[in-house]
């Protein structure tokens, strides 16, 4: 059953895309795959012929009873969210909309997940299948629309976070979930160290936390689930109620924290790691597993800190001489090269977007 508002654009532009990819492969011309270009600064710049995905858009199929939606890659995330909202459902991983310009294909390719990620899973965990355009101009399907269809399942999820370097995502099937029956958002004044301890305590106690962010001297929490469990948790934690829009502003990087001239770094760390060693102003998201850091410290120093703590660091702000992604160990780099060679033997898809020689 299709549930797409009539005002939303829907168009299958796969023939044009396949023709352009085939032509580029024949001419050995690199392609810069683009959607809304909201994440163009995340990653290394790509020199190539633009492959614009925005004309390939719209919901292909959606039956709310099956909790699966199939959508074309050029569809804005905001429009998909509106379709799901009509049915009382959502994308649990909360990919950012970035002013309504971010596309579903770009969301999957970047693999960015919102505040719910530690409690429901990453974006890749909700990818059931996808249709790709290969470097040979073939239109192929991997995975499916049900969890039981495992053929091509892993390859579909491999597209999440690949930044378009392995193939052109044309369509994607995503698992969705019902919206929670009750929600309560609050703030509690406490230090970052105390916040990390309390979050662990609340998780062990089974409290329905689906968002935990610490900025300055304040811990922000989101509770979601059944009415009774949310009310009970809110009474136990205390604090003051806040506008739920806080979580959208965090996801979209609209909070005052994200303003300023410093470089913005995203550190993925074990959530028990302390904050004292970070050289700059930090905000803790994902219950401490994701740290946003504003700092002009040398990239090598920031990455050394992240690596010594068992994590990695990504630069979200273009900076001269700074590689955006954590350098790969030699064995992992060799695997990436082999994978790129297998899936994109002509090297035409977003060459160098993640690493210089990939």
UniProtKB/TrEMBL annotation:
Keywords: FAD, Flavoprotein, Oxidoreductase. One of its GO terms (molecular function) is glycolate dehydrogenase activity. Residues 1-179 form the FAD-binding PCMH-type domain. Pfam families: FAD_binding_4. The keyword Oxidoreductase applies. Its EC number is 1.1.99.14. NCBIfam families: PRK11282.1. PANTHER family: D-LACTATE DEHYDROGENASE, GLYCOLATE OXIDASE SUBUNIT GLCE. This is Glycolate oxidase subunit GlcE. It comes from Paraburkholderia edwinii. The gene is glcE.
């Amino acid at each position: 059953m299709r549930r797409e508002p009539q005002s939303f654009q829907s168009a299958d532009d796969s023939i044009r895309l396949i023709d352009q990819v085939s032509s580029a492969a024949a001419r050995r011309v690199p392609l810069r795959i683009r959607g809304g270009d909201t994440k163009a600064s995340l990653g290394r710049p790509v020199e190539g012929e633009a492959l614009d995905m925005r004309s390939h858009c719209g919901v292909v199929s959606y039956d709310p009873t099956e909790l699966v939606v199939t959508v074309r890659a050029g569809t804005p995330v905001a429009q998909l969210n509106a379709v799901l909202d009509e049915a009382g459902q959502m994308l649990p991983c909360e990919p950012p909309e970035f002013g309504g310009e971010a596309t579903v294909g770009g969301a999957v390719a970047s693999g960015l997940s919102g505040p719910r990620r530690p409690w429901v899973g990453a974006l890749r965990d909700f990818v059931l299948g996808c249709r790709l355009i290969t470097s040979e101009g073939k239109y192929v399907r991997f995975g499916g629309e049900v969890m039981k269809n495992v053929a091509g399942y892993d390859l579909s999820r491999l597209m999440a976070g690949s930044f378009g370097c392995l193939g052109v995502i044309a369509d994607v099937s995503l698992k969705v979930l019902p919206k929670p029956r009750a929600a309560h958002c609050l703030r509690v004044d406490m230090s970052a160290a105390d916040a990390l301890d309390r979050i662990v305590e609340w998780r062990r106690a089974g409290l329905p936390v689906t968002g935990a962010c610490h900025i300055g001297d304040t811990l922000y929490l989101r509770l979601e689930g059944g009415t009774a469990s949310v009310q009970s948790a809110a009474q136990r934690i205390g604090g003051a109620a806040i506008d739920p829009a806080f979580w959208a502003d965090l996801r979209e990087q609209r909070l005052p924290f994200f303003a300023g001239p410093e470089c913005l770094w995203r550190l993925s760390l074990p959530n028990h790691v302390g904050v004292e060693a970070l050289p700059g102003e930090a905000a803790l998201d994902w219950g401490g597993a994701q740290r946003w850091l504003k700092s002009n410290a040398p990239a090598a120093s920031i990455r050394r800190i992240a690596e010594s703590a068992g994590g990695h660091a990504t630069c979200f702000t273009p900076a001269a001489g700074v590689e955006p992604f954590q350098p790969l160990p030699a064995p992992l780099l060799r695997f990436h090269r082999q994978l790129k060679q297998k899936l994109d033997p002509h090297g035409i898809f977003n060459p160098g977007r993640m690493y210089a020689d990939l």
